[in-house]
Specification:
The chain is mainly alpha-helical. The protein is 51% helix and 5% strand. It has a domain of 67 residues.
């Protein structure tokens, strides 16, 4: 099947560049807004704590301080040893994707077969480099 192109290949490349610039700008704007939001949450949380306010309702929205506790593994080896005897569901073995990708590329370059259970896919993209 033949695709009919209405734009020149140069126009498509320019459009791709424009979309990349827009994506990068929006990503930067998101990161800035996310940082500002997190700072505002921290300031309001502290202020509500300092003044003893358990919650307030503004324009139909309830603002209620809340906490969620998260784990922080400080010694993985010690924890894994403990978990293996107490609750194996707490740990899992995972492949190291960057190293596995490197291995697959090396095997392809050398014409070698993949390790058992490993396949690969190719993601096609257009690199954009300054001249």
């Amino acid at each position: 099947m033949t695709t009919i192109h209405t734009n020149s290949i140069e126009d498509e490349a320019r459009a791709l560049r424009s979309l990349r610039e827009k994506r990068d700008q929006l990503k930067a704007e998101f990161e800035e807004a996310d940082e500002a939001y997190k700072g505002a949450v921290e300031r309001l949380y502290e202020r509500m704590d300092e003044t003893g306010v358990d919650g307030l309702k503004i324009d139909g929205i309830n603002f209620v301080p809340s906490e969620t506790v998260y784990a922080n593994v400080q010694d993985r080896a010690a924890f894994v040893e403990w978990a293996r005897t107490h609750d194996e569901e707490l740990v899992e073995d995972r492949e190291r994707k960057a190293l596995l990708n490197q291995l697959v590329r090396e095997r392809l370059d050398n014409g070698e077969p993949m390790p058992p259970g490993i396949g690969f896919y190719v993601r096609e993209t257009i690199a954009q480099r300054s001249s």
